[in-house]
Write a structure and sequence with these properties.
With 319 residues, this protein is of the alpha/beta class. The chain contains 11 helices and 12 strands.
């Protein structure tokens, strides 16, 4: 495997989608500092609107050089069953469609049903043009040999490095003791250039509160929506209880952001339960305007859902 110095630190080249090409062409052809876009007169000097497909800084990691697209494609809807049932050829096309649409952050995990499909889906994509996030299950004390397991992840996915690797789904406050060996392996993998950033996803306020205090984590995959559906809560026996506590969870997530940690939001569509478009719109606006989220991830099962996700986040970014 290539050494660390083969990993690119800079953001990949700007994503140019069909929409961007039309906008850029119109600007280049404008006269007197004006251009026509969708029959509207726009000043060429006007700053570009923020978009779902922008490459953005992920926290203050790596001196601000770790970049991610603001919107990511999740492959674990209902543990990946939704995407897995598409079949490999359709799944490949869906990943390619997301990439061509400007979504260059791809989210997977070892325990998703789609994990075994990822290598083939990723193979046609230029490695330096997407951000790959994966996760290691947090059950028990982790794998017997976590460093070897991380190396196997690279082979499984067909990549030399993983942009961010997370400890997946911690639910109790004792995770620093239980996962000590795993955390040490992450540190070693990062030193070897196998992963670029390390972090965690929590399911429950007990784990989240400890994570907020930790200086080890660099990236937090956080459950966020204003409805509190599948947001972290204090349920004593079921940390996966869908009734979360938004103010308490957001307090911890904000403190992580304030420390410079990269924050990625998940559960924007309530674990897929927000069938009402108004709920999805409300969640997107909340996440994009809360002030301490760098990026977000949504699970998609069709090109139409990808288009909707991009447009919804674009609207939310307008305020």
């Amino acid at each position: 495997m290539p050494a660390e110095n083969n990993i690119k630190e800079e953001a990949p080249s700007p994503v140019v989608t069909r929409r961007d090409f039309i906008r850029t062409s119109a600007t280049a052809a404008g006269m007197l500092g004006l251009t026509t876009l969708n029959n509207e007169i726009v000043s060429a000097a006007e700053p570009a609107a923020r978009k779902a497909t922008d490459w953005v800084q992920l926290g203050r990691l790596n001196k601000g050089k770790l970049k991610i697209t603001r919107l990511g494609m999740g492959t674990g809807s209902h543990n990946g069953r939704v995407q897995m049932e598409l079949g490999q050829p359709t799944f490949n096309k869906l990943v390619q469609y997301a990439f061509d649409s400007g979504i260059r952050y791809i989210d997977t995990a070892k325990n998703y049903l789609t994990y075994g499909m990822m290598r083939e889906a990723l193979k046609p994509l230029p490695r330096d043009q997407y951000f790959l996030l994966s996760k290691m299950p947090s059950g028990g004390t982790g794998p017997v040999d976590p460093l070897k397991t991380i190396d196997q992840y690279r082979q499984d996915l067909g990549v030399d490095y993983i942009d961010a690797l997370l400890i997946h789904c911690t639910v109790t406050a004792d995770w620093p003791e239980r996962m000590k060996k795993v955390m040490e392996a992450f540190d070693e993998a990062q030193a070897r250039g196998w992963i670029r950033a390390k972090g965690m996803s929590c399911h429950g306020l007990s784990a989240l509160r400890i994570a907020a205090k930790s200086d080890w984590l660099e990236v937090q995959l956080a459950r966020i929506n204003p409805q509190g559906h599948h947001v972290d809560g204090d349920h004593p026996t079921n940390p996966h209880d869908p009734h979360g506590k938004v103010p308490e969870a957001m307090k911890e997530i904000k403190s992580m952001h304030d420390k410079g940690r990269g924050i990625i939001a998940m559960k924007l569509v309530g674990n897929g339960d927000f069938v009402n478009a108004d709920d999805r719109e409300k969640a997107a606006r909340y996440v994009m305007n809360c002030g301490f989220v760098d990026a977000c991830v949504m699970g998609f099962k069709s090109p139409a859902e990808i288009d909707e996700g991009i447009e919804r986040v674009n609207r939310a970014l307008k305020g």
